[in-house]
Specification:
Layout: H1 5-30, H2 42-71, E1 87-88, E2 91-92, H3 93-117, H4 124-146, H5 150-162
Antiparallel strand pairs: 1-2
Helix pairs in contact: 3-4, 3-5, 4-5
């Protein structure tokens, strides 16, 4: 009967013997990979140079992939200040005022939300900082919606605050922030 127990044991013993022979034949070559000792043969020196060269190439390619966006990035398109009458930041005043209105409406809603939530235990500066975080998220969405840069949105906010453009309630947005008052207890 093929595949009897004795045949399988004999095959396993034969296979183990072959593997033992291969292992004893390959063992001297493992010493070539011992980088703590000096190579004693020309083959050892060649293997060491090849492995170090391979590692250097892999490291160089990895660093190149990581550094390429930093070293080969295209500079951003400059935002001209006043090319055409009534245009600033590549937008007409009408569009800038519409964007400012959206900003003012959102800021009032965020201020009301922060007061209601009483975030940061009533610390005014921390509450304003928290509101600023949500404002940045809104500005990113607004920039994407109007196909403009985030810088342009901040320029529009700055222009509206400085020119005292009215918000939805008819009042201009405050150009100040509460002073920093570090918490005494953490």
């Amino acid at each position: 009967m093929p595949g009897s127990r004795r045949e399988r044991e004999r095959d396993a013993t034969t296979l183990m013997g072959k593997l033992r022979n291969e292992w004893t034949r390959l063992t001297p070559y493992f010493s070539l990979l011992d980088f703590g000792a000096k190579p004693s043969t020309r083959v050892g020196f060649v293997v060491r140079v090849a492995v170090i060269s391979f590692a250097a190439v892999v490291l160089w390619r990895r660093l190149n992939v990581l550094a390429a966006p930093l070293t080969h990035a295209k500079p951003p398109i400059p935002i001209p200040s006043e090319e055409i009458e009534d245009y600033r930041f590549r937008l007409p005043e009408r569009t800038r005022r519409e964007i400012f209105q959206q900003i003012a409406e959102n800021e009032q809603a965020l201020r009301a939300q922060a007061l209601q939530a009483n975030s940061w235990d009533g610390h005014l500066w921390s509450r304003e900082d928290d509101r600023g975080h949500f404002e940045r998220l809104f500005f990113r969405r607004l920039a994407k919606e109007h196909n403009i840069s985030l810088s342009q949105v901040y320029f529009i906010l700055d222009e509206g605050v400085r020119a005292k453009w009215p918000g939805p309630d008819g009042k201009s947005l405050p150009g100040t922030t509460p002073p920093l008052n570090p918490r005494q207890t953490w």
